[in-house]
Design brief:
By secondary structure, the protein is α+β, with helices and mostly antiparallel strands. It is built from 4 helices and 10 strands; from the N terminus they run ααβββββββββαβα. Strands 3-2-9-8-7-10 form a 6-stranded mixed β-sheet.
């Protein structure tokens, strides 16, 4: 059942996971407890979403800022509120996109047999005028929807493995793996890109 977790189940799950992003703490914590850190989820920890015979293999979270998932059915961002993060959970049974929110966590589940295309790319995003950040972006597309998940946490360690795992689970060929797509730009990024362009223009004038 969902509620009757055996003592120590999270240790077993973490031990059997392919990737070290699945830890007992991440499976059972809703609060991060860091100063200025964002909490994971509000209602219940990730482990409560994992069925008895299910095995989690990858558990990525978004970074502190700009952490949300974009679902292209409506091109709406599925957004955590200001206190929480977005999470991508890949198990042997399904792919789960999660956003924490005080009004109730939001979850979108994608079954493997509904996946049509998968994508992964690494990119650099101008965060401010002076600094850039490296990110990994995972794209999971079904017949009528595409989800984009961006994180800097494991961008060079694990995100690509997760995508390859998904391709295997779906029985897709590598032709279904996209490496050339763009993460739909958020409003904040749009304005910071424009600001950067203005600054560049201005600096050229001064030269």
């Amino acid at each position: 059942g969902w509620g009757d977790d055996d003592e120590g189940r999270e240790h077993q799950l973490a031990e059997n996971a392919i990737h070290h992003s699945v830890t007992p703490e991440r499976l059972t914590t809703t609060k991060t407890g860091w100063r200025g850190g964002k909490d994971f989820l509000y209602d219940e920890p990730v482990i409560e979403l994992i069925a008895e015979d299910e095995q989690p293999h990858f558990l990525f979270t978004t970074d502190i800022r700009g952490g949300h998932i974009i679902s292209m059915e409506s091109s709406e961002g599925i957004r955590p509120d200001a206190a929480h993060r977005a999470i991508l959970l890949v198990t042997n049974a399904q792919i789960v996109f999660l956003c924490g929110a005080n009004s109730g966590d939001i979850s979108h589940i994608v079954e493997y047999n509904n996946v049509r295309k998968v994508g992964y790319l690494e990119t650099t995003i101008p965060r401010t005028v002076s600094s850039d950040t490296d990110y990994g972006i995972i794209k999971i597309a079904t017949e009528n929807k595409a989800y984009y998940f961006r994180s800097k946490e494991y961008y060079n360690d694990g995100m690509k493995d997760a995508v390859e795992y998904v391709i295997d689970q779906c029985d897709l060929s590598d032709d279904n793996m996209e490496t050339d797509f763009t993460f739909p730009e958020t409003d904040i990024e749009k304005s910071s890109r424009r600001l950067k362009e203005e600054v560049d223009k201005y600096e050229k004038k001064l030269e």
